[in-house]
Write a structure and sequence with these properties.
The complex is a heterodimer of chains A (637) and B (117). Chain A has 22 helices and 20 strands. Chain A has 637 residues and is an alpha/beta fold. In chain A, strand 2 (73-76), helix 4 (83-92) and strand 3 form a beta-alpha-beta unit. Chain B has 117 residues and is mainly alpha-helical. Helices cover 50% and strands 0% of the residues of chain B. In chain B, helix 2 (16-24) packs across helix 5 (65-73). The longest helix of chain B has 13 residues, at 2-14. Classes of the chains: A alpha/beta (637), B mainly alpha (117). At the A-B interface, helix 14, helix 15 and helix 20 of A face helix 4 of B.
Chain lengths: 637, 117
């Protein structure tokens, strides 16, 4: 096709930016794609764009490319290998769309993008050195990879030896920058021209946002950034998003038959809802089948107070599935692990056996099979499913729901309603039981995590709130006591269980919530905050409102429990399990740290009676537009 | 839950003889609290035995000492440390049990405004 036929021959800059902004805002999809999938397809550029900016450095053109992709922010700790791009962002791009976010650590940059994507549903851009910056960033990239979250990573590097000025540029240069993270990114490229850069930039976005979502890497060569644009008319290709992969229709019909005929089916929801529509679809499927949903809480998949919600207790990651005759696992995490019993760590040796009902059928729907890698073992143990459907769960749900509806006769519907009534009664009893359990240690000091969660809920429940931290570390009390229903009410956990994620991911999520005026709440584990606390300064500097409540149990507590268990197993002294795990002597003063970074802060709070008023004061500051932190000395879990 | 109850029944019968002796000893709840913390019981069960994601509730336990002792000495395959006599002698275990039994009962949730929806 004639390139010039696709768009205006040589648009002026004003015209170009106007159209780029329109693309960033997300034009209607051109392909006939279901409504459920549309939000994932944004943004999409209207048509091919051509730019002439021959008097400028290549990095100006790169900024134009990022603008067309609708990037709102670029998070980075500054680095000389991408100084050209940074200068272009600031002066040529006017530091808007994307706006530069000053980060104190590359791990913070990536984890901020991780949290942002989980709220906003699209990638944030981060920049880092291809060497030392990427080395800092790598754990956070692994978390995002395991959590199936898109992150758009741009690395600076100087490939041409002629252009490496001095020692720093030699030690910061690398032959294949992305090699270090290729095992846990979905795609990468190292473009050698601006045309190549634009094409790969658009391709990277598309790949990152095609389920399973994953991080991608684009190398911005230093020479390409800083030398004048040589190509006559570098061109930015049109972005057309792929429709998400949907499960095979025949297999979906087979799954529907199993589910409708089942006496007691269960839906295990791992990473299901990519968009708000995903929650609606999962609710619809559960209600059509009147089936219990065991939400693994890796996303906001299912309303926590829904009568069919299956986890009124604390154990969410490993639900008991032994009573069910059909198990529908929607991109479930560690499905083998939750359908088998292994020898506990308190015993020697290893034996395992299935824990599901003999003859029970296991049906899986997952897009993960489309992006397997070998080295890192996040894929879990092989599952002997009876029916394995490769496809994105959210994209597959509409057809599955319709197939189920067609099979349900009036008689069957009455039976399903009876089942639903029973599940609802169990759910209600479970929630009442949770309230009784929360009453234990109500007046304790250190403050119980149930009290902490109840006090928080009382302060936020009438606001448009968003909990941006994993609540498992506080015994899932928010899940057990609060009412989660909206897509941004919860964002799950790290993915790769890499600690150091939570504080920066919370800041990124709060940034995404800011423009919607939501009250962001982060129950922040103390150990996690110590990895890169400088992200608190980033929150203050960029005026990102958020309430941080430090769950300060003064330990790397998970590891302390392991040490005590192993010591007992070997008949040794369990009293020494604090060595290497305790965070005391001296106690860390998180309020002073936060104040030093420019936040409003109070603490340590040890008396539960002081907590409510302190929360009220901190929330008033957050509502005024600033980040705040309360240091609360808590029970371990 | 059914498995747990069955285990308790088995442990209860098996340890009955041992228990009789332990129950008649004088137990020291204060020392039990010290041991509860030193030996890491609180790590999973909380300082007040309230339980949580890592360990079940102990507060207001209805387990008799026999079943408690048998369970702690040889817990089923799980994440529960096996506290054998070498690391927690019988008297210490009795003290820990005394501490658990001494923890005040919680208020009913209905009497706590924040726990009423």
């Amino acid at each position: 096709m004639d390139e010039k036929a696709k768009g205006p021959a040589v648009p002026d800059r004003r015209h170009f930016l106007k159209r780029a902004a329109a693309g960033g805002a997300g034009l209607a999809a051109t392909a006939p794609i279901a409504l459920a999938q549309q939000s994932a397809l944004k943004p999409e550029t209207e048509a091919a764009v051509e730019v002439t900016s021959n008097a400028r450095p290549g990095s100006d053109f790169m900024v134009d490319v990022f603008k067309t992709l609708g990037m709102e922010y670029c998070a980075a700790n500054p680095g000389s290998s991408f100084r050209g791009l940074q200068e272009s962002f600031i002066n040529y791009g006017k530091n808007t769309s994307p706006e530069w976010l000053t980060c104190c650590h590359e791990e913070s940059s990536v984890a901020m993008a991780h949290g942002y994507a989980k709220i906003e549903g699209k990638p944030m851009m981060i920049m880092a050195h291809g060497t030392v910056g990427l080395q800092h960033a790598s754990m956070a990239i692994y978390n995002a990879y395991c959590d199936r979250v898109p992150v758009y990573i741009v690395l600076g590097n100087i490939l041409d030896v002629d252009y490496r000025r001095g020692t720093a540029e030699w030690v910061h240069s690398v032959q294949d920058a992305a090699a270090m993270v290729r095992d846990y990114t979905k795609w990468d490229d190292m473009p050698v021209s601006l045309t190549h850069f634009a094409e790969s930039a658009v391709r990277a976005y598309k790949i990152s946002m095609t389920p399973p979502y994953e991080p991608v890497v684009l190398v911005a060569d230093g020479t390409l950034q800083e030398e004048p644009i040589k190509e006559k008319t570098p061109r930015i290709p049109k972005l057309v998003m792929s429709a998400p992969p949907q499960g095979d229709s025949g297999a979906v019909a087979e799954a529907a038959k199993l589910l409708v005929d089942a006496e007691n089916p269960v839906i295990v929801a791992g990473r299901v809802a990519r968009t708000p529509k995903g929650i609606e679809l999962l609710v619809e499927l559960a209600e059509v089948l009147q089936a219990r949903v065991q939400d693994q809480r890796m996303r906001m998949n299912f309303p926590s107070a829904h009568p069919l919600c299956g986890h009124p207790g604390a154990v969410i990651a490993a639900p008991n599935l032994s009573d069910h005759d059909v198990i529908l696992a929607l991109e479930a995490q560690d499905l083998w692990g939750i359908t088998h019993k292994m020898t506990g760590l308190n015993k020697f040796g290893m034996e395992s056996h299935s824990t599901i009902k003999p003859g029970a059928k296991v049906v899986t729907v997952s897009a993960i099979d489309l992006n397997h890698k070998s080295n890192y073992q996040d894929f879990g143990r092989y599952v002997e499913a009876d029916l394995a459907i490769t496809g994105d769960p959210e994209a597959t749900l509409p057809e599955l729901i319709e197939a189920c509806k067609k099979l349900i006769t009036p008689d069957r519907r009455r039976a399903l309603q009876e089942r639903g009534t029973k599940i609802a009664a169990e759910n209600q009893a479970g929630r009442a039981r949770n309230r009784e359990l929360a009453a234990i240690a109500w007046d304790a000091s250190p403050i119980s995590t149930a009290r902490l969660s109840a006090e928080l809920w009382a302060q936020i429940k009438n606001d448009d709130w968003s909990l941006v931290s994993n609540d498992r570390f506080v015994s899932s009390w928010p899940t057990r006591l609060w009412n989660f229903s909206k897509p941004y009410h919860y964002i799950g956990a790290q993915g790769g269980a890499g600690i150091g994620y939570q504080a920066p991911a919370a800041v990124g999520a709060a940034l995404a919530n800011k423009k919607h005026g939501r009250l962001t709440v982060n129950i922040q584990c103390d150990g996690d905050l110590n990895y890169a606390p400088g992200v608190l300064w980033t929150a203050a500097h960029h005026q990102i409102p958020m309430l941080n409540v430090v769950h300060n149990n003064r330990a790397y507590h998970e590891e302390r429990m392991y040490l005590a268990l192993l010591a007992a197993k070997y008949d040794r002294d369990m009293g020494r399990s604090d060595i290497g795990t305790a965070l005391n002597g001296p106690n860390i003063d998180y309020a002073s740290i936060a104040k030093g970074y420019g936040l409003y802060a109070e603490g340590p709070i040890t008396d539960p009676k002081d907590l409510g008023p302190a929360l009220k004061r901190a929330i008033s500051r957050v509502k005024a537009g600033e980040p705040a932190l309360l240091d609360v000395v808590t029970q371990p879990r | 839950m059914k498995t747990f109850a069955l285990l308790l029944a088995i442990f209860g019968v098996a340890a009955l003889a041992q228990t009789k002796a332990a129950e008649t000893k004088t137990s020291d709840a204060a020392n039990g609290q010290r041991l509860f913390e030193k030996n890491g019981c609180y790590q999973c069960h909380g300082y007040w035995g309230q339980g949580g994601v890592a360990g079940p509730r102990l507060n207001q336990t209805k387990l008799p000492f026999a079943a408690f002792s048998a369970f702690v000495r040889n817990p089923p395959s799980s994440g529960m440390p096996p506290y054998r006599a070498k690391v927690m002698p019988d008297q210490e275990l009795a003290d820990v049990y005394a501490y658990i039994k001494s923890i005040p009962a919680p208020k009913p949730a209905k009497d706590i405004p924040l726990l009423n929806p």
